[in-house]
């Protein structure tokens, strides 16, 4: 505990001295491992000091020991609410380094999965904002529909949360018919549910009074703090990596970037809500495009890059080439170009960047993750200054801070 | 390279001349290396010049090259001009014996924790940083874990047989 | 009187079809007509007109088992799966763990979910020390059990280095079913625990092994 700093009480305060309150690292209201040491004037926060690192797992050092395809498991555990997004971002970084060009169908399948991941991420964030403002029902209601997304993941890759989905160059197997049927079911059922969820909140007077005007950050400050994603868009800046640097054929889709005006909790909530609708629209378009592939094109699920794409296991046992490439990839005999790549994707909560330095070895020489949560959280003490404690809690959840991503 | 990149090169070269040590264009991102003591001047120019306008700091990180004598540690800045949608990368190399670099916190509030993280991992001393402490690791840690000479694994572990795990 | 005749306590209700739910997860519809709900079995004992006699530890075990208050100590990915476990789909409250308390003073079961970094270890230990006896600990997921894939300088290699653990749930992260299974295992432990265990020498030695008085 640092020594007592002498903080002057604000004008008009009825308190005699400030109180120090330790919020976290395991506080029930923080949904993750965040620590804030707050100087309180009654209920008002005079000063906040944020501490992180309670779940630092040394991803970047760990990545220096792992071949490229093994790092996918690490990216799962960054923002675990939208793991496939991180997986795909990592695969695309590798493809950029290795010069692998993916077919259109792979791109569209990726878009479907990435937008599903975005929906599940925003869904958790918004329902948790609801919980923190006192409305538990919405959370319990929509959690059930997140399971529908997880069922699709399971059908595609066999795992729910930490998906480890896809490979460098595409997917490990083609989407089954069941996966598409589950997707259709999701597209059919989810909009109605989300509409209901919105109706619970967007015009709810309690919710509006709790969120409007609290936890606001101006566009200038947000930019200066390197905000990205929904939190920046809520402040009114239409920066979206999907549009500014389209990856995975996002240029083929028609969608809008929702922006807010004030950057407060309500705007962040509404931006995420609208992004869910946009994501649904993108998924529909992508699914339509996937269905439009006919003949042999309709079975393409990976790039034709045998030197980097791990072959299917059945082929490894039966085909000579597949066995050779499998051996070469697993034993690190493939040629990896040396170079520096920065690739960014629009993650669940902002620009998720991968800065990869390769020296030609099978493992990266250095891999740095640009983690949006880490960057948001440093602005937290500025945002919550002079607000009420209960608003600070809502701000924490509406910034969508994920401890795993923050601390890497 | 498009004309905009030429403009950027021209403005930077005019200002800094041969203090810019190298220009690169790897994988579609303009990248340059500058003498370490000019990092803040370069960042300020990139920020202030209306033709450059790199007012968004994407990332700061460090790299350790143990075999490059005299310039073992690198600090890498990724900047973004959101209006023109151009990215640029700036690199500086400092010796591990004296890793002093000027801080960018005056320009970008977001640089605060990024620099603290770089200090935490590589021990780069950002001069003028308001609060240069470890951010992710425990304060008592006495080494900089991402430098190449330090092992990844927990050395206090006794339940792993070294022979079995190849260390 | 044997346990079989006490099957009358097992109530089957709702023979008719369940109310239509808004969502179905199985594409193939299952026959749910004969699915009943099991109530808790009565412990062995003597029953007569207006009385039932059994040993005290069985009654205590029964009561404790079915009213556990879990304290979720969720740090990362496994915490998200715990949210799913607590959520409407898997619904842990069916197992008497309805009341998730966040105050260690009131809770019986510490569920550690997610990676515990070395920076976090003292906090975890502090939380454990604040809990009142009898207390149980469940390590959910590979990270809490053994450090998982994070064999790194900053991660505690399993929470059993700082606090005693009763049940380990493997998986990275474990599915909600696995977490529920872990809770059931804890319930078995709770039910069969001797009333004297917490005062015994063995338990004291265990705690002393962790430096806890």
Task: Give the SSE layout.
The complex is a heterotrimer of chains A (408), B (167) and C (213).
Chain A: E1 19-23, E2 35-41, E3 44-51, H1 59-63, H2 72-76, H3 83-98, H4 104-132, H5 136-157, H6 177-201, H7 205-211, H8 219-224, H9 229-234, H10 241-244, H11 265-292, H12 313-318, H13 320-331, E4 339-347, E5 350-358, E6 366-370, H14 372-377, H15 380-383, H16 389-398, H17 403-407
Antiparallel strand pairs in A: 1-2, 2-3, 4-5, 5-6
Chain B: H1 3-16, E1 20-24, E2 30-34, H2 39-48, E3 56-64, E4 73-81, E5 86-94, E6 100-102, H3 111-122, E7 125-127, H4 162-165
Parallel strand pairs in B: 2-5, 6-7
Antiparallel strand pairs in B: 1-2, 3-4, 4-5
Chain C: E1 46-48, E2 51-53, H1 56-65, E3 70-74, H2 77-86, E4 109-113, H3 121-130, E5 136-140, H4 141-146, E6 167-169, H5 176-192, H6 201-209
Parallel strand pairs in C: 3-4, 4-5, 5-6
Antiparallel strand pairs in C: 1-2
Describe this structure in words.
The complex is a heterotrimer of chains A (408), B (167) and C (213). Chain A has 408 residues and is mainly alpha-helical. Chain A contains 17 helices and 6 strands. Chain A has one domain (59-407): Cytochrome-c3 Hydrogenase, chain B (Orthogonal Bundle). Chain A has helices at residues 59-63, 72-76, 83-98, 104-132, 136-157, 177-201, 205-211, 219-224, 229-234, 241-244, 265-292, 313-318, 320-331, 372-377, 380-383, 389-398, 403-407, and strands at residues 19-23, 35-41, 44-51, 339-347, 350-358, 366-370. In chain A, helix 4 (104-132) runs antiparallel to helix 5 (136-157). The mean pLDDT of chain B is 89. Chain C is an alpha/beta fold. Helix content of chain C is 29%, strand content 11%. Chain C contains 6 helices and 6 strands. In chain C, helix 1 (56-65) runs antiparallel to helix 5 (176-192) and helix 2 (77-86) crosses helix 5 (176-192). The N and C termini of chain C lie far apart (45 Å). Chain A binds chain C through residues 25-28, 32-33, 53-58, 61-62, 73-74, 76-77, 80-81, 124, 139-141, 143-148, 150-151, 160-162, 178, 181-182, 185, 189, 193, 403-404, 407, and chain C through 22-23, 25, 27, 73-77, 79-81, 83-84, 87-89, 102, 114-117, 119-120, 123, 127, 149-150, 152-155, 172-173, 175.
